[in-house]
Amino acid sequence: MNNTFSETITNADTDGWKKIPVEYGEDLLDILVPPQCETLRMNKMPCLASSKDEISNALNNPIGSPTLPEIIRSKGKPVGDVTVCITVSDITRPVPYKGENGLLIPLTEIIEGAGVKRENIVIVIGNGMHRPSTTQERLFMYGPEIIDRYRVVDHDCEDMSTMVVAARTRRDTEVYLNKIFYESDVKIITGLVESHFMTGVSGGRKAVCPALVNTKTIEKFHGVDFLEHPNATNLVLDGNPCHEESLEVALTVGVDFMISTTLDNTLCMTGVFGGDLVKAHLAAVEAMKEYVRIPVKTPYDVVLTHAGYVGRDHYQSVKSAVGAIPAVAENGVIVLLANNIDVEPVGSREYKTLLHLFKIMGPDGYISLLKHPDWKFTKDQWEPEMWGKPFRKVGQDGLIYCCTQIPEEDFRIIPGISGWSLLNGKEDISSEKERAAAMLQNAVIYAVNHPKFHGKTPTMAFVEEGPYAIPMQA
Question: What predicted TM-score, i.e. pTM, was given to this entire model?
Answer without folding.
Answer: 0.88
